[in-house]
Design a protein that fits this description.
Layout (H helix, E strand, L loop, with lengths): L16 E6 L5 E3 L6 E3 L4 E6 L7 E3 L1 E3 L17
Parallel strand pairs: 1-4, 2-5, 3-6
Length: about 80
């Protein structure tokens, strides 16, 4: 959980990015062993910047929802 409590239902986010990739390639941001990663309640969910930020993989994430995927738990400005 990034930006939420351990249950994935309460906002504990920060005033910055939940995940930030800056001029880096080949990163993987994916779900946990149960197949889901919650990235919610932050200023920005995921931010990828820079010309050399290539071949990054983002999959198996819930961005801007709670762990159920049914209730809103938004990031403040944008998800991804």
């Amino acid at each position: 959980m990034i930006g939420t409590d351990i249950t994935g239902t309460a906002d504990l986010g920060n005033a910055q990015c939940g995940v930030q990739i800056d001029n880096a390639s080949g990163n993987i941001i994916e779900g946990d062993s149960q197949g889901v990663q919650v990235i919610s309640g932050n200023q920005v969910g995921i931010e990828i910047d820079g010309k050399t930020s290539t071949q990054n993989l983002i999959e198996g994430n819930l961005i801007g929802t709670d762990k159920s995927g049914k209730a809103a738990l938004g990031n403040r400005t944008r998800g991804c």
